[in-house]
Amino acid sequence: MGKYEALANEIVKQIGGKENVSGLTHCITRLRFKLKDESKANDDVLKNMDGVVTVMKSGGQYQVVIGNHVADVYADVCPLIGLEGNAVSSEEEEEKKSNLIDIVSNIFQPILGVMSACGMLKGLNALFVALGLYTDAAGIYTMLNGIGDALFMFLPMFLGYTSAKKFGLKPMLGLAIGAAMCYPALQGSTLSTAGEPLYTLFTGTVFESDIHMTFLGLPMIAMDYTSTVIPVIFIVYFASKCEKFFSKFIPDLVKFFFVPMLVLLVALPVGFLLIGPVTTFGSMLISQFVFKIREISPLLAGAIVGGTWQILVIFGMHWGFIPVYINNIVTLGYDNVMMPFFGCTFATAGVVLAIFLKSKDKKMKELALPNFISSMFGVTEPAIYGITLPMKKPFIVSCIVGAIVGGYYGHFNLREFFAGGLGIFEFPAMINPDGTNGNIIVSVIGAVIAVVLAFIMMFVSYREEEPATEAEVSTEKTETKPVVTQQKELLKKEVIASPLKGNVLPLTECKDEAFAMGILGKGVVIVPEEGKVVSPVNGTLTTIFPTLHAMGITSDDGVELLIHIGMNTVELNGKHFTAKAKQGDKISVGDVLVEFDKDAIVAEGYSIETPVLVTNADDFLDMIATEQIAAAFGDTLITIMH
After folding, report:
1. CATH architecture entry for 5-98
2. Mean pLDDT by 10 residues, the chain (642 residues)
């Protein structure tokens, strides 16, 4: 349960308990219950409850208006009414599932704190050994190393749990899948020591694999899955589909244990026989590609490794380089194929340090500092999953710097002579056994370049708001604020153009009480004459619901807008709407965002009144709505005073 557990409990109680609920979804502001008997709900109690804006009844739905954090409340209500893991996905969650980066970030988000802690422990342990406080044979070293290594060793178990929550699978099933993938007897390193292989598949290719075990006569290609990322995510996703399938056919009387049993019985064999090997082979192809490029140009190969290494880490595909790395050290006495990745560690550290110093957000600073330390110690996953990847621009900067330094390392043939530590503790492994210092100098210079260049690029490009005075309040999406000169605030005016052509009504005349009360934002209502919505500002289309009836826009100056086409048109499920832009697009005034058949919508019995709201109006000095009775596309609709 989350931070709205108490509110969720009270809402469920006041709507007549979970027995009175037959369905639940949510849109941009409200929980939409389907109640068996609406008379059992205590309307007055709910309306006066802290955390609830109001209650409305429309289209057979009992709507509890929450506000912008409705998705969090929805997540806490679902398990209380028995829909956890099987609830109909909200529009917002379905939209997020289309973004692979968001999926990976959300899966890692719950474990970032403990991942950072483990990374710092590993780094500190290596530091204390380097300082001579104890040796790597001491009990304290073994203890701290085990504590710091445990999460990374059994990462599939943690990711199995979080992936299950993301994909709607029972979390304990996800945990069981992750545990099975860490089971010692099923690891490739264990099976390969059991004796001679039964036979070999794909002989003579990069995929050549010894088969030591079969399952119902099918060959199992042995892999080591501890510390991996992508295999468990894909297997849990497949398992979530299996669970939904089996739940349709298994009788309720035995569903409690039969469905989990069948899910494990199907998903894990498919995972070990197919999904795991395929994802691992993908990483092997990448390593072989880099090996071939290196034969042509070490600089280019180094740039490719350095520029893509963090992307490979995200998907767990960097493990494909490990066999090449180990083989090179054993046969050649050094590795120079994988080593261009070394600059990525310090590029990430430089980016995170810049964010720590530039950010004014307390939570971001609290997260950035330990992640900087962890990155310097060579453990970058917490920084990648917690900061750089979700923010995107820092991740791109670190990849660019990684490519630059990777090219430098490739050109100067950086080598590692034995499997050393991580981060700053990896430098000793780069000391040439012949006594020369050229290689270690190359490694140090590259690390310094990575930190400094990444720091400068991120520090210059970081755009979090820095308030001019203590009285000003910055917001995450605001890029500029008024300048204060000689104690006088210079006002800034921003015009919101009309996104529709039609008659303009005061917001108080809206037929929907939640909009009319101005609780969801301030603005106007337009009754459209033409079925088209255009962008009212230059900015970003931050949200567009799959049903296309509502969209959120953030202007370049931080004004947040909500355009809601019609009343209860979410129930049309996208019918009569056509998207002309997608979420995340940069948009300019006049760009067509959505087209809709207004006559067909009216014929279906829905009002096409369209509220155009400024949802963060309280962040600005004043907001003035037009007094025009009619507006054309592009006419001044709202004026914002900064």
Report:
1. 2-Layer Sandwich (3.30)
2. 82 92 78 88 86 74 78 85 54 44 66 70 76 90 90 89 88 95 92 88 86 94 84 93 91 85 97 90 74 87 90 68 61 80 93 91 82 85 81 91 95 82 80 84 95 95 55 36 37 83 90 78 92 94 88 90 91 90 91 94 92 86 80 90 70
In this structure, are residues 59 and 25 in contact, taking their beta carbons and an 8 Å threshold?
A: no
The shares of helix, strand and coil residues in the chain, as percent rounded to the nearest 5, are 50, 15, 30
DSSP 8-state code for residue 386? I
- Check residue 499 and give its pLDDT: 95
SS (H, E, C) 65-119: ECCCCHHHHHHHHHHHHCCCCCCCCCHHHHHHCCCHHHHHHHHHHHHHHHHHHHH
Provide the pLDDT for residue 312.
Answer: 79
| Best CA proximity match to 183, nearest among 235, 228, 232, 224 | 224
Written as six digits, the tokens of 267 are: 């998903």
Instruction: Select the CATH number that applies to the domain covering 493-641 from these four: 1.10.30.50, 3.55.40.10, 2.70.70.10, 2.40.10.220.
Output: 2.70.70.10
Encoded tokens for 343:
């600059």
Tokens coding 92: 């917002």
**Which residues, 6+ apart, have CB-to-CB distance to 304 below 8 Å?**
290, 293, 403, 406
Burial class (CB in 10 A: 0-12, 13-18, 19+), 253: exposed
The number of CA neighbours under 13 Å toward the Cβ of 53 is 23
Look-up: residue for tokens 């009619």?
630
Query: For the chain, which residues make up each domain, given as ranges?
Result: 5-98, 154-294, 298-461, 493-641
At 608 the pLDDT is 93
Residue type, 389: L
pTM over 0.70, yes/no: no
Catalytic residues: 27, 564
User: Which residue type sits at 17?
Assistant: G
- What number of other Cβ atoms are within 10 A of residue 511's Cβ? 12
Determine the 3-state secondary structure of 631 from DSSP: strand
